[in-house]
Amino acid sequence: MEGIEIIKERVLKNKKGNGVIYACIIVLLLMLLFSTLSEYLRLQMIAKGVRNALQTSITSVATQNYDDIYNGIREGYSGGYKLNDNNRWERSIDTGNVYYHLDNTLGLRNNGRHHIKISNGKTEFSLSNLDIKIINSPLAPTSYSTQNKFKAEGKISLEVPLGFGWGMLPPMKINLKVVSGYISKF
User: Fold this and answer.
1) Quick one: which of 178, 179, 183 has its CA closest to 63?
2) Which of 33, 122, 129, 160 has its CA 20 to 30 A from that of 147?
3) How far apart are CA 22 and CA 58, in angstroms?
C-alpha cells in the first residue's frame, strides 16, 4: 500500500510535466504491440489462404484421377490402374498442373522458379519448390486396413516479406504441406 501511495505522489500527482515522457513511452509501446499483432495476423491469413488454395489444387489433382481409378474399382480396388494391351494392370496416374490451379486461384505471376503475388506494386508473397507426391493404393492388397489409400501429398515453400521493421527483418519462410485423397462414394 505504501508503494502505491509513493507512485501516486511521484508520478500521477506530479504537475511538473514529467508524465509526458511516460505517456509517450506508453503510446509507443502500444503502437509497437499493435503493429506486431497486426503483422502476425497478416502472416497467418496469407499462410492460411495459400494452404487452402494448395489443398484445393491437390484435391483437383486427386479427383482428376477418377477415370483411372474407376477401372481399378471395377476390379475391386481403388488405385489408379488400367489394363494394357497385354491384358495386364499397369499404374496410371495423372499428376495434373497444380501451379496452374494455384496461379488462377491466387492470381500469381510465374517468375521462373517462383510464383509471385503482387499487390499494390509490391511482392505480397511468393511460392516455390512445389513437390507433389501421389501415393497409389496397391493392386490386390493383402489387407485393406493397413495398405495405403490413393492420396496426393503436396509441399510448397511460402516466403512472405515482412511489412514491419523497414525491410531490415528477414522474410517469413515456411513449408506448407497438405494431403488429399480420393475416396469413391460407392
Assistant:
1) 183
2) 129
3) 54
Per DSSP, the residues of 82-138 read EE-TTS-EEE------HHHHHHHHHT-EEETTEEEEEETTEEEEEEEEEEEEEEPPP
Task: Give the C-alpha distances (Å, rounded to integers) separating 113 from 22, 124, 147.
Answer: 50, 16, 35
Q: Which of 65, 96, 95, 60 is nearest to 81 (CA)?
A: 65
Question: From residue 86, how far is each of 81, 83, 89, 127, 174 by CA, in Å?
Answer: 14, 8, 9, 43, 47
For residues 88-92, average pLDDT: 78
**What are the beta bridge partners of residue 123?**
118
Instruction: Convert the pLDDT of each residue in 4-36 to its tens digit.
Output: 787 777 766 767 767 788 889 999 999 999 999
Q: In this model, does residue 67 exceed pLDDT 70? A: no
DSSP label of 9:
I
What Rg do the C-alpha atoms of the chain give, in angstroms? 27
Nine cell digits for residue 142: 493383402
Q: DSSP 3-state assignment of 140?
A: coil
